[in-house]
Specification:
single chain; mainly alpha; 0% strand
Length: 181
């Protein structure tokens, strides 16, 4: 099925401000945002979740771990490539990004706790055992961080599923980090 890629000139009127803001923020309109513009509400919801996740209490590297891990677990080729690129730009070590892309445990125990919790939240649809939550907390995180992970997973669920359905083409900006399931 073909889904249209919109830009700020031809998108539904309600989506145009979101696309214009995305262009200011990123320097271009991602194909993900162009596809999401079909539903201005989806686009606005995704961008609102992304903004809130950005403000969450998780450290920057932990946020990147959530975004890549959820995308790998959901098999989203687009989002793995995009977030790998963004993580490397945010100075997440290349070996961390590569391990995440491969679904392998991380050497850094704090980041591994985030990877493991994120993977379990996605794979088990939120039914994470208390012992796993306790292990996450023992790694130095808080109960608030648990829900910050849930927020990041929710954000990625919207984009991952959109990309699965629309077969969103990969932006040139993410090509160097192309990933396949």
């Amino acid at each position: 099925m073909d889904f249209r890629l919109y830009d700020e000139s031809d998108a539904p009127e309600a989506a145009r401000p979101q696309l214009e803001a995305a262009k200011k923020r990123m320097g271009f309109i991602t194909t993900l945002n162009g596809v999401m513009a079909e539903s201005p509400e989806l686009l606005a919801g995704y961008n609102a979740l992304a903004e809130q996740f950005g403000k969450s209490s998780l450290p920057l590297r932990a946020k990147q771990v959530v975004l890549i891990t959820a995308s790998v677990e959901n098999g989203c080729e687009y989002c793995v490539a995009a977030h790998s690129t963004l993580a490397l730009k945010a100075r997440v070590p290349a070996e961390v990004v590569e391990a995440l892309r491969a679904g392998k445990p991380l050497q850094d125990s704090e980041l591994e706790a985030v990877r493991r919790l994120t993977q379990l939240v996605v794979a088990r649809r939120g039914w994470v055992e208390d012992a796993e939550i306790e292990a996450f907390l023992a790694a130095g995180y808080t109960r608030r961080h648990v829900f910050d992970v849930v927020l990041g997973v929710g954000m990625k669920t919207l984009s991952n599923y959109t990309n699965h359905i629309a077969h969103t083409p990969l932006d040139p900006a993410w090509q160097d980090q192309e990933w396949t399931r």
